[in-house]
Design brief:
Layout: H1 6-20, H2 22-29, H3 38-50, H4 54-63, H5 68-86, H6 90-103
Helix pairs in contact: 3-4
Length: 105
């Protein structure tokens, strides 16, 4: 008998979550859904974090990336992260610039 891996257990737990919350799963995966709004996004992120389904938070944000409230948070988070690291070591600033340039290659 094949041993169930840690990853298998995570997948099973995730599939059980989908089975328990099929409406939320559909909402997470459907861009431009009429029921999605900033309050629903907030509630879903809190629930997913509580369930430790962190990867799905990023799926949710990517699927709904064209919504204004998601664009706003992406821009804000980017600026927050850059400003936190900019004031650190000189090599941190150089790395930030390298990462930006790498993106445009």
């Amino acid at each position: 008998m094949k041993k169930i891996t840690k990853r298998d257990k995570q997948t099973i737990r995730f599939l059980k979550w989908i089975n328990k919350y099929p409406g939320w799963w559909q909402l997470i995966c459907t861009p431009n859904d009429e029921h999605m709004n900033i309050n629903m996004m907030n509630m879903l992120i809190k629930h997913l974090a509580q369930e430790q389904l962190y990867e799905i938070i990023f799926v949710l944000l990517m699927v709904h990336r064209k919504e204004k409230y998601v664009k706003d948070i992406s821009n804000s988070m980017l600026l927050d992260m850059v400003s936190e690291n900019w004031g650190g070591k000189r090599k941190d600033r150089k790395q930030i610039i390298k990462n930006i340039l790498k993106y445009f290659e």
